[in-house]
Amino acid sequence: MKAPETTSRPGWPWKIFKSALVMLFVTSLGGTALAQGKPVLRYVVDTGSDAWVPYMTPSTAPDKPGIVVELSRMILKRAGIEGREVPIPERRAVNAYANSDVDFEWASPAWFPGNEFPETDLASVPVLPVREVLMFPKGDKQRWLMPQLIQGHKVGTIRGYTYRNSITFRRFDVSNEIDLVRMVGARQLPVAIIGELPGRYWARALNAKVGFGPVHSEGSLVIRLQGRFRKLLPRINDAILALQSEGEVNRIVAKYIGGFDLN
To answer: How far apart are CA 128 and CA 125, in angstroms?
Structure first.
């Protein structure tokens, strides 16, 4: 009986398998594609919530998609990298980066243990300062000249957030930055801790009678990039530094909160 041939020409099953291998290789590049020879990076836009205003705003304000959305577009364009905006609901957006639904996100190393991202991730040069400051009713600046002065006092905070030295003051939790600004402006709270840019944004939007004082904690907002895109990091950093030197980063921030010195 003739033995089966083992050197026959590959037919359609091999072609399908070969195509599958190609697709697997493309997927392993991080879910990106090439558009006219350019790499593509995915990032979140519009979570449909006020949770991270003014960094990202709902689609009801298409001319103002948010500070980090506009910066993402500008940085990628300057770096010669194609961007793909991924609209993800708020609940999923929190884990979008960890689930590899996106290729980069905006974050601060200060939010992580040891002030560092996991070693598998990359960090761009600092783009924006992220500061938590004291907020108080307008006219009460002299009462809160130093962050240590909140010790022992009732301090407005946001439920679920962690705060430096929180054991030294009495937390009064509210749901979000909007409530915090309103209550301080109405003198229902003597002082609060709030992110500076969200605080200034909502104070302006609500015409709230509040003032901002000393820094309670600070870090830098950067682009947190999946490690497999290491070759793109120098281009991203060069783009960030160029836009900063040209005043474009300050211009975008001012669009949302008015004139304000980032330094």
So the answer is: 10
